## 1
Amino acid sequence: MKKLLNFPHSLAALLLTSLLFQTGALQAAGLETQTNREGSVTVKVTPLNISPGTKTWDFEITLTTHTVSLDQDMGSAALLVIGSGRPRPPLAWEGDPPGGHHRKGVLRFQSQPAMPQFVELHISGIGDVSQRVFRWRLDK
């Protein structure tokens, strides 16, 4: 009788785990938000779904300043380096348009069929900083 009572709990746990994987909540597990405060602009980057099974690899970007206008084209300012490969431009920037002192959006990159040892997101020309590099190890 006890085994029958545990079955609904096991089924619920399995369904929840499956749902979390499908939504990307677990794909970026362990890949924490990184913040760069160089120059007059604070840049925060959060990997959202970094997994070979996803359509795109997405990074949430938040830009904050109180001194300069954030008028950069984020699609041109960012490159993703996957493992020791060549830098790749984003497929899209989906977020706030240029201007203002606060911007937020998602940079989408083509996913890869296999997991590399690391990924680096390079963002250039934000504030007075020539390049900011955000790096995550994937082979933990």
## 2
Amino acid sequence: MTNIPCKYKIFLADDNKIFALFLMNFLKNSGFTDVHSFETGELLLQRIHEKPDIVLLDYFLNSKVETAANGNEILKQVIELYPDTYVIMVTSIGESDKVRELFKCGASDYITKDEKVRSNLETALIRVRAILDGRSRNC
């Protein structure tokens, strides 16, 4: 993936600090310069008015805060407020019923946290850049 600077705003929510750091570094090394990380979906929603172009969401967001909403609940709220937001679910769930539900609720893409996460994320970001570039010329 090219590391041409890209001005798209990205929000990511993952309660695993190590994985969130991996995502932050990967995105910045891929040329995305406006990246913000949140430990819960609720914290992400507090700043959703900033209208991120891309949201990366984990499904399970309650390892630090037991009462935290899951990624599907956050996805629904993001899409309700800003339906054009490109939401990529990056999670360890692989159950087909849950994955179908995520797409029905508005997820744009789905990446499993496994040994292919880096290449799958790269592919997804190439795809989303092409889509967003078609909407505007921010990159």
## 3
Amino acid sequence: MLLRRLVLVAMLATAACSSISTVRVQPETVYVGPHLRPIAVIHAQVTSAYLLWIPIPGHVDLDYVVNRMLLATAKALGADKVVDIQVDITPDNGIWTLRKLIGYRSASASGVAVMIEPDGSGAGSGAGSAAGSTAAPPRAQP
């Protein structure tokens, strides 16, 4: 009976886990490019344990982490795009195969969720626009 409980506790402790962390950012504190307004930084991570080359389910692949976790979270926050994406995954071939004996694999992805701001250049192309006028250049800051 005690052995069954220990096995159950060990299985629960090594079960696959995933997490998504988000932090809202102020547009004036993070630069991502012209006509892009940053709204959040997102980090998604998934880890799966292995015991005797048998994976405990965890969907450790970049497709899952990027498309189903990172981009889905960005869309839920109201973002149009994610920029500056960085990914990392534990390899599953070569010498890394021995890690599947007793070990784990992990994958993570992070990026900045942005909203696209409309470009002001095409806004005045109607009949009442001043098509031939030129604007004064911006003044230099002292």
